[in-house]
Amino acid sequence: MAKLKFGVIGVGGMGNLHLSNLKALSEVEVVAISDINEARLAEIGEKYNIPKCFTDYRKLLESGVDAVVVATPPFAHRNPVVEALERGIHVFLEKPMAANLKDAEEMYNAAIRSSAFLMVGYCLRFHDLYEWIKEQSETRLGEPVNLAHVAFGSIPAHTWLLKKELSGGMLNENGVHVLYVMYWYAGKFKRVQALSKTLNNDISIEDNIAFQALHEKGAFSSFIQSWSCTHPYRSWAMCFENGTITFDGYLGGEVKLSARDGNKVETKIFEMEWQNMYRREIEHFVHSIMRGEKPVINEVDGLEIQKAVDAAYRSAETGQAVEL
Questions:
Q1: In this structure, are 19 and 146 located in the same domain?
Q2: Per the omega criterion (within 30 degrees of 0), is the bond before 74 cis?
Q3: What is the pLDDT of residues 93-144, one digit of tens each?
Q4: Which of 120, 199, 272, 308 could form a cystine bridge with 228, CB 3.0-4.6 A?
Q5: Which residues, 6+ apart, have CB-to-CB distance to 275 below 8 Å?
Q6: Are residues 128 and 246 in the same domain?
Q7: Which residues pair with 91 in a beta bridge?
């Protein structure tokens, strides 16, 4: 079978990571990259020996690629994604789907019309820890009842993240990882309520948010996030019908599980690991194309998360719960 010809649009931090993972796959040939930063484009092109390097993504789409990774900032997702799908080019889109709901809806509609696949990169779906929790829910603990996460941190180094028009906001650009886990475990969001505020100066996004949601199947979830803290802290607490899982951290640590049918608290150690989930999500995308099967995270899931984010921002603005 001929190799899939890939292009990468946006070769900054995440684009560079995805490019590296694509280059490691025997089924793939990376034939083109695109970036508006000419110095970075030249550097990455030389590093990975990429034959075609463009400052205009449209030229990349015209270069004969079968699939692309779009890893630009959220405000620049819509156009390359829509144009690629209209050409029948498969798209792996780095999360979030968009900077706003309108753009996400346009990409969703383009994916529905297209014969090509759209996958949104919610990487925790491919992390051992979160897969294990999902398995425990399905085999031992039953349906989620109450999911809660706290993510306290500080302002990130990338200044574009702090501009609402570029990133869409803290929850939109970063917190969606947690919202996806809640959606994956507990199902579609039905009602969302949120509070937000901004403590740091010279930024146009929220740096604190309290998110609460009711899911269609009856579970509820809450997420407290801050980028204005003086030291970091993260934790999960998950109550299921037949047991509980808790741990301090995000991508690893000591996870505690107790079942309702026994008093013993079990512990399991997950190493702090993040590289493998990115390799696995790209492998899944490639294999989905080769098998002709829709990726497990697609335009439907991307739009559902975008709707929840949009509802949270509207609720924070109006002080009212928003029905989805």
A1: no
A2: no
A3: 999 999 999 999 999 999 999 999 999 999 999 999 999 999 999 999 999 9
A4: 199
A5: none
A6: yes
A7: 68, 118
Same domain, yes or no: 43 and 175: no
137 and 56 in a common domain: no
Query: Do residues 30 and 97 both lie within one domain?
Result: yes
CB contact at 8 A, 323 and 216:
no
Q: Angle at Cα 264 formed by Cα 262 and Cα 270, nearest 5°?
A: 120
CA distance 294 to 85: 14
Which secondary structure element, helix H or strand E, spans residue 237, and what is its range?
Answer: strand 233-240
Structural domain count of the chain: 2
**Cα atoms in the 13 Å half-sphere on the side-chain side of 40:** 13
Residues 128 and 118 in one domain: no
Q: Are residues 97 and 149 in the same domain?
A: no
The DSSP code for 139 is: I
| Same-domain pairing of 106 and 23 | yes
Instruction: For residue 89, report the phi and psi dihedrals to the nearest 5 degrees.
Output: -95, 125
The token duo for 222 is 């809450």
Pairing type for strands 4-9 and 67-70 reads parallel
Beta 28-34 vs 52-54: how paired, if at all?
A: parallel
Query: What is residue 273's predicted lDDT score, i.e. its pLDDT?
Result: 81
Q: How many CB atoms lie within 10 A of CB 93?
A: 28
What gap in Å lies between CA 296 and CA 292, rounded to an integer? 12
Structural domain for 229, as ranges: 124-273+306-323
What does the pLDDT average to over 24-29?
96
Name the nearest CA neighbour of 117 among 256, 311, 299, 276: 299
CATH of the domain at 238: 3.30.360.10
